Amino acid sequence: MKLNWFTRKGLIYWPASIIGWVILVLAAAYAVYTFIDIDSRSHSGSDTMINFVFNLLIIGLVYTTVAYFTEARQQIHRHDDE
Amino acid sequence: MKDKDEFLKQMESLQVPQVDPAKHQQMVKMAIMNAGRSATLGVWLIVVPCYFLLCVCMYYYFHVHTTWFGALFQLIISLDKTPGFDFMAPVVLFVLPIIAIVINSLAITHFQFNGANKVKEFNITIKIKFLNILLILISLLIIGVFISFSMVQNISISN
To answer: Whole-model pTM?
Structure first.
């Protein structure tokens, strides 16, 4: 089954369909939620940022993994790609 | 007329280079994974442990009386105390770099088995893709840090 939800430009995956955009918005919303949640429990600005960046990177990793498996594949691949 | 016949004979006897499409397909299949895609995922797999090690370095820098492994130990202990994150240290410092090594190695390594000749050959070719090789090296470094930390921790506990 071909899922063409994302397209890759350099090192970043961009949405290529409505489902892709929904996933991106969900990831961004969850990132905002984690920021608010961490900020409400943290004791300082640096405490917030250190924990939030860790969560943000994990969200980015999960997003990229989903995009990796649902990327729009090109029909013709050169043997010596990129 | 004679020259024309000779020319035609020469043309007919010319050996046309043969291209075996099956063999060509086989060569294409040897590229197991796409280098660009592997590099993209590899970067994200490496960023998380790199950030963790950066935090360790900051902890070490701002706490004068601690050692580098002490700083790593403190941060892993703090992760273990966080509910839901107690399994994160081995995943972040070991599993993610291993996955990055596997996908990037498959992207730059090509295997070819040539069994048609008298001497059977198994060729391993490594493409020079700097980003993929860099990701593999960084992953190996992170795994080395984690293994050395585990060894130091075991030795210090046993003593």
So the answer is: 0.73
Q: Report the C-alpha gap between B154 and B93 in whole angstroms.
A: 17
Q: Token pair for residue B113?
A: 């088995």
How many cross-chain Cβ pairs, A to B, lie less than 8 Å apart? 50
| B142 Cα distance to chain centroid | 13
The answer to whether B34 and B104 are in contact (CB under 8 A) is no
Helix (H), strand (E) at residue B109: strand B109-114
Burial class (CB in 10 A: 0-12, 13-18, 19+), B9: exposed
ipTM of the complex: 0.77
Interface test with A, best of B23, B37, B43, B108 (most A CBs within 10 A): B37
| Eight-state DSSP code of residue A78 | -
Interface contact B55-A50, CB threshold 8 A? yes
Q: Which residues of chain A have pLDDT under 70?
A: 1, 74-82
Average pLDDT over residues B95-118: 86
SS3 B125: strand
Chain segment A48-68, per-residue pLDDT in tens: 888 888 889 999 999 999 999
Q: Are the C-beta atoms of residues B146 and B69 closer than 8 Å to each other?
A: no
